[in-house]
Amino acid sequence: MSYFALSEATAAAHLATVPVIHRILGGTSADWTVREVGDGNLNLVFLVTGPDGGVAAKQALPYVRMIGESWPLPLSRAYYERLALADQGRLASARVPALLHHDDDMALTVMALLTPHRALRGALIEGLRYPLLADHLAEFLANTLFYTSDLAVPAAQKKKRIAAYLGNTAMCRITEDLIFDEPYFDAPMNWHTAGLEDVVAAFKADTPLRLAVQDLKARFLAAPEALLHGDLHTGSIMVTDQDTKVIDPEFAFYGPIGFDVGMILANFWLAAFAEPGQRPGVPSDGWLLLQAARLWNGFADRFGSHWRNLDPLAEGGALHAIGRHAPALRETAIAARIDMIWRDALGFAGCEIIRRILGLAHVADLESIADVEQREACERRALSFARALLLMPDHFPEIAAVHRAIAPALLPA
Amino acid sequence: MSYFALSEATAAAHLATVPVIHRILGGTSADWTVREVGDGNLNLVFLVTGPDGGVAAKQALPYVRMIGESWPLPLSRAYYERLALADQGRLASARVPALLHHDDDMALTVMALLTPHRALRGALIEGLRYPLLADHLAEFLANTLFYTSDLAVPAAQKKKRIAAYLGNTAMCRITEDLIFDEPYFDAPMNWHTAGLEDVVAAFKADTPLRLAVQDLKARFLAAPEALLHGDLHTGSIMVTDQDTKVIDPEFAFYGPIGFDVGMILANFWLAAFAEPGQRPGVPSDGWLLLQAARLWNGFADRFGSHWRNLDPLAEGGALHAIGRHAPALRETAIAARIDMIWRDALGFAGCEIIRRILGLAHVADLESIADVEQREACERRALSFARALLLMPDHFPEIAAVHRAIAPALLPA
Fold first, then answer.
1. Disulfide: which of A138, B107, B148, B409 matches B381 by Cβ 3.0-4.6 Å?
2. Is residue B366 included in any domain, yes or no?
3. Are residues B144 and B100 part of one domain?
């Protein structure tokens, strides 16, 4: 079947040809209701419900939806997304939607409907709290990152998986440009809150900052440590009180472990910096920073446990050898590796915060602060913090040190 | 044609079917002489000469020649070797033999005969000097490493080249095992000069050393910065007074730039450490260290020049963007990148020196020192220096600092 973009009018009839979808929805396609809800930047998303159940059908468009046909983007991203959903599903099955059907020609991926889930970002802005969220995200990160790394997977096998994702270059290019380049020069699509011109100019002239970002870009380009989600912000996470699902891995590729970790931490920190602007005068309950700490510590604990649980006699990944030959060194090696991930994560988090305030794609946490002066104040604090992450990582040997540095910025305005 | 191993008796008739070989050699295959000279560890090498000229025909064997059929090794390495010869030939045509013919089924690569070249290692042991050697090697390194990196090649195109070499896993595995693992535990194939037992035991128990090596192994596994030769020791270099050719890139893959640089520096340093044992009582003329310095400085200069010469308006590699958008930052970025390569090179050089003394594959520079006590003394100094490279890179901000540290070890015994 050659590609055509589905619509609310045509989606039901198209999906009715797939037996598994029929079974889940029940009835006939005439009984199904279809709602297009793609509020993201890139794709069509149809929620389809029938008498017995529902599915979510995501279809890539051959261009960037938020910009239009002037910015083409290959449909192949749907292929990489379903590849990643399958890989993540094997490693963290409870943390991603079940993949029900895919059609690469149609750039179509059909998943279990997540209900009554909602996107985490909006929920955090409303001040909602989720007791299992941090643990669930730690589980997703540790499982997908450890078990696709050189610790768990023999090198020859891992290189095949690296190769499987190497073609997802158009999506990586978006990150290269939007995160690592454009915020630091007068890119035409940059925008920012009025009043931040001095920071924009200062960052542009900040040689150490730009070199630190350049080094992280080099790592993003050429450090295939593990299979990354690649776009792990709070808009890619669906939550209920009891469940957490990570969606939208269309940016997936093999990259530096600290990138996924740093991006999700940055989005919790962005939410925390936005809080005083969202609820002026109300003291923070500290929940967001507590979740960031639980997420990081939970990730680090699980990453170490996965390592300890490797069969000491099995071949394992190429970096498992030290544990096989020198069991006494294993704990030190674990601590050293986790520290390297932490250092990387700090840098990538700094990049993510900066680009969400000065680049093209902003976050609603900050944008929804109606009072411009409040917003500017929150953003200014976040930018200053991001610069410190990039330039003074030694000041933040652990996440508690980060949070001590943030705390004063979170006092009510 | 399905694979069979050629012999001195069958090679001429086999090669006679290739028109380009016929043209070069002249006469008929009955007029050709064939000599098998493969003194390396892995392959058959036939030198074939006729009335008008000669060629070198290299054929992979399905096992490691120095060990035997008990250590199988895939023939595909011949495919990666001819791929690399072609890539290197485009970027540094004067520094590699011309590729005349290849037959992937036969794992056969036919190259221009290098005559009157000889292998550099043996020449250095004899004390011969080559005026253009260091510049030639700097040219080879700078051209092949810069022009396959994210500075010169757009990311999507570079990832295709990474993928092209990702299957060369069996050769990478040899390096992973022999350089990064086995020297640090009681691997059955390790051997060393009697008297070094204390160093073997100390290295095995040296946690910081082993963690430093582990980090470099992680970079070797997952840092596809540029197309590496992968085995750039002085046995892979053929020289005359006027010419230098780099051969045998069968370990080629995309890896960290500092690996190639560090391995060749290490082999110059190994030769320098061997000198007092080779010529007891004769003061060193300092030529070997001077060449190492010329090689590194020549590489760094050329790497920077290649960067400066990039078209400022062209797309270029993903890491070229900073130079496009912030020309004032370019020199600082160049210096920072060269410093990162230098740091990596020091570490990889340390690994190479250690494995050449305590691992499976030793170097003739040291092995040919007949006096065991002299040899042990040279090796002990080299090992101590290698450990310093790995653990105290900050002490060696430039190659002059390295050579100041080495100099006392090179005084006549």
1. B409
2. yes
3. no
Per-residue pLDDT, B1: 67
- Binary contact (A169, B163; C-beta < 8 A): no
Helix (H, G, I), strand (E, B) or coil at B173: helix
Measured between its terminal Cα atoms, the distance across chain A in Å is: 57
Asked if residue A34 has pLDDT above 80, the reply is yes
Residues on chain A bordering chain B, Cβ-to-Cβ distance under 8 angstroms: 150, 155-156, 158-160, 162-163, 166-167, 169-170, 172-173, 176, 181, 184-185, 204, 207, 210-211, 214-215, 217-218, 221-225, 254, 318-319, 321-322, 325-326, 329, 332-333, 336-337, 340
- Using alpha carbons, select from B224, B152, B396, B198 the residue that is nearest to residue A221: B224
Single-letter amino acid code for the residue at A113: L
- Domain for residue A1, yes or no? no
The string of pLDDT tens digits covering residues A156-191 is: 999 999 999 999 999 999 999 999 999 999 999 999
Quickly tell me which residue has 């030793």 as its tokens: B362
| pLDDT score for A390 | 98
H or E segment to which residue B48 belongs: strand B43-49
Q: Are residues A259 and A380 in the same domain?
A: yes
DSSP-based three-state secondary structure for B313: coil
Q: Find the helix or strand (DSSP H, E) in which A70 lies.
A: strand A68-72
Closest CA to A3 of A73, A60, A55: A60
Q: Is the pLDDT of residue A372 over 80?
A: yes
Compute CA A202 distance to the chain's CA centroid, rounded to the nearest angstrom: 28
* Residue B78 and residue B108 in contact, taking contact as beta carbons nearer than 8 Å: yes
Q: Which of A270, A249, A232, A257 is nearest to A363 (CA)?
A: A270
pLDDT of A266 above 90: yes
Q: How far is CA A373 from CA A194, A361, A380, B385, in A?
A: 9, 20, 10, 59
Task: Look at the alpha carbons of B184, B188, B193, B196 in this order and tell me if their dihedral is positive or negative.
Answer: positive
Whether B401 maps to a domain, the answer reads: yes
Range of the domain at B56: 11-112
Tell which of B221, B251, B330, B337 to mutate to test the A interface (max A CBs under 10 Å): B221
pLDDT digits (tens, 9 = 90+) for A267-325: 999 999 999 999 999 999 999 999 999 999 999 999 999 999 998 888 889 999 887 88
Which residues make Cβ contacts (< 8 Å) with residue B46, sequence separation at least 6? B6, B8, B11, B34, B35, B36, B37, B56, B57, B58, B59
Q: Which of the residues A325, A331, A332, A334 would you substitute to probe the B interface, choosing the one with the greatest number of B C-beta atoms within 10 Å?
A: A325
Q: Measured between CB atoms, which of B211, B221, B336 is closest to A318?
A: B221
CB atoms within 10 A of CB A147: 18
Percent of chain A scored above 70 by pLDDT?
Answer: 99
Domain end, chosen from B64, B85, B112, is at B112
Please tell me which of the candidates B155, B184, B322 has its beta carbon nearest to residue A221. Answer: B155
> Which pLDDT score, from 0 to 100, does residue A1 have?
67
Angstroms from A267 CA to nearest CA on chain B? 26
Position B40 pLDDT exceeds 70: no
- ipTM > 0.90? yes
Q: Are A371 and A399 found together in one domain?
A: yes
**pLDDT tens, position by position, A318-369:** 999 887 888 889 999 999 999 999 999 999 999 999 999 999 999 999 999 9
B149 and B212 in a single domain? The answer is yes
Output the pLDDT for position B410. Answer: 81
Chain B residues in contact with A183 by the CB 8 A cut-off are none
Whether A413 has a pLDDT exceeding 60, the answer reads no
d(C-alpha A329, C-alpha A311), whole Å: 16
Provide, as residue numbers in chain B, all residues whose Cβ is less than 8 Å from the Cβ of A318: 176, 217, 221
Do B132 and B24 share a structural domain?
no
Query: What's the structural domain count of chain A?
Result: 2
Residue A164 lies inside a defined structural domain of this protein: yes
